[in-house]
Model the fold of this input.
Amino acid sequence: MKNETNILQDTHGRKHSYLRISLIERCNLRCTYCMPEEGVTLSPKSHLMTYEEIYDIAKTFVKHGVTKIRLTGGEPLVRKDFPVILEKLASLPVELSITSNAVIIDKFTEVLKANGVKSLNISLDSLNPDKFHKITRRNEFNKVYNNILLLVKEGFKVKINAVLMKDFNENEIIDFINFTKDLPVSIRFIEFMPFDGNRWDMSKMVSYAEIMDIVNTHFPTNQVIRLKDAPNDTSKNYKIKGFKGSFAVISSVTNPFCDSCNRLRLTANGQLKNCLFSSSESDLLTTLRAGKNIEPTIHKAVQGKFKIRGGMNTLEEFKKPKLHNNNRSMITIGG
Ligand code: SF4
Done:
């Protein structure tokens, strides 16, 4: 395809420079908002991208302007050839980062450093071991907590993603913020979002406004500093005066940030999702395996991207199950 065609620019003028690649549909935790109770039907191994195919597809995106690649899952570190994938992608001119649940990340700090990974997003929805067990259905709180401290000590830039749910962990908002007093981490409170099998309901979600009400009730207003968000940022960033770390809110439900979206997603079975909430996908893997050029398929997918949340423009539309249920479970998207 002619190079002057920016195949990563959509009809709304957004240039997509950030590719999130889900490496695997498996995980060593069972978070209730991500993995349906009944589990997920895993793709046959032959339908999953090999490390060579991940590299070939990523290389094409980089050729057309992708400058950041995030590796997700499931849990990316449980993929046996994770180090090989990381090393191959590290040969591309991109910023590499990963999203992990940190259960086994202590075994990977050297390979991450060796391949230029500087920033990590860690999922942690509670600072309470019992609640952690309840939401992840696994007893790994201490490992995750200690590994977060290890990552900070090792000099990684750590962001902690906490999905907030009513009557579960919204009463930990202040504890999470106080966690940033002496630790240079960024806590990101995520509005609970609907994905296949997670029994989402608007009433279970803690909104951006509710989170800031709790913050502004607890901390004097002049102590809560609004930070400048980076371009394409998904989060609204704040810090408490004098605290080493910061906190933020990712409000896809009540305050979507689609105007500056630069993200595309590649699933572990080689499907391109032009939006987290898109119900349509484009099959890059079959095209690649047929020895055909994947650029036209990428271009068509990007051209078909809706302005907002996969076409769910208003909150009323977003709340409609028949609209938001045409999606995968979070574990097979990778966030
Ligand atoms: S909802 Fe879709 S368009 Fe909006 S920011 Fe997320 S990925 Fe981008």
User: Anything to note?
Assistant: The longest strand covers residues 157-164. Residues 252, 256-258, 261, 263, 275-277, 309 surround iron/sulfur cluster (CB under 6 Å). The radius of gyration is 19 Å.
